[in-house]
């Protein structure tokens, strides 16, 4: 069975995609929260370790005497092999006395702070200011560029992981939704074919045994029961129509012979003629019933061919023009596009004939019936429009059923089977039949794909 192209809008509305996205969102929130916790704890631990190093150096320098403090700072700089430590001694006025750090700003003692990179420094610094016994300021700093770089890397990992998770979740949702959505499309295609009368079809069932298979199995059981009931009803209807045609035809023949008798009573002749009219109506209905059953049961396409529209519609208009004139109705042929259609010409001729016959019968004297065709995005649209009473919206579906006669059809000859035959022919071709409001009157459209 051909698969229709799946669109992203259809995929994202599936339950599988939504559940995958929901679980993915929960997972992403958990991963981001975990990475955020790792980031926060790592940054806090690295900052605390830096502060411990600064306080150890601060205690060592604070314990020095005022005379040896400059020498101790110089010695600390000389023994700093990592190159990450900075020391400075500033006077009370902020002038540098010794050291490799020059910061012109005030500090709160014993409270480490972060400052941006200074000229000559390698990166941002963590600075601790303490007060010397002589009132001078001792600055102890450590280059925290590695820590800042590590924080940035952790943050990049956090953002990258979040984006990767979102992409993976969306991709997984799409991939996991494709198979169920394709199966649903197969179920839809099969259900449309069954609705068109193919009761021999069944919903496809896989070996998975999932909820779609359970649903398909239930529907298949229902279809089997519907097929059985419909077959019984159709069988009874067809059997009655077939079995009664012969005796009724015999009765009609006997009435004809009774009318032809030379000594027949004129009153009996009149009664016999009236009975023959009724018998003709019954035989016509039985014939229509058998015709519908034949169309619904055949499913054949042996007589299908590609034909141009214009000659077919011209011949139909020419055939029904005298009937329309007798009824006082103007039959007009509308614009016909230069298009072709694949169909059984005889069956399509029969379908449009029934539509024209109904349109002429239900149009008042002085009315108009228009037979036309047009091209639309879906193919070709054949239309029959009249100026009669039309059908109410709630009656249009019922009008396609057998023996349905509208509330305004009293006194108009007919069996209520014309549109049923049209519907059977349209379904056999795979076309669509639409009844609409012509304001006033009824417009009937047969939509068919245009032949290449």
Characterization of the model:
The protein contains ten helices and twelve strands. With 452 residues, it is of the alpha+beta class. Among the domains are: 67-144, no CATH class; 211-298; 305-448, Heat Shock Protein 90. A five-stranded antiparallel β-sheet has the order 2-1-5-4-3. A five-stranded mixed β-sheet has the order 7-9-10-12-11. Helix 6 (266-298) packs parallel to helix 10 (418-429). The longest helix is centred in the middle third of the chain and has 51 residues, at 145-195. It is rod-shaped and about 160 Å long. The two termini are 22 Å apart. The model has no long low-confidence stretch (mean pLDDT 78).
- Roughly how many Å apart are the termini? 22 Å
Question: Would you identify the CATH architecture of the domain at 305-448?
Answer: 2-Layer Sandwich
CATH class label of the domain at 305-448: Alpha Beta
Major sheet: order of its strands? Answer: 2-1-5-4-3
What is the H/E string? HHHEEEEEHHHEHEEHEEHHEE
Low-confidence stretches: none
Describe the global form: rod-shaped
Number of helices: 10
Helical content class = 55-70%
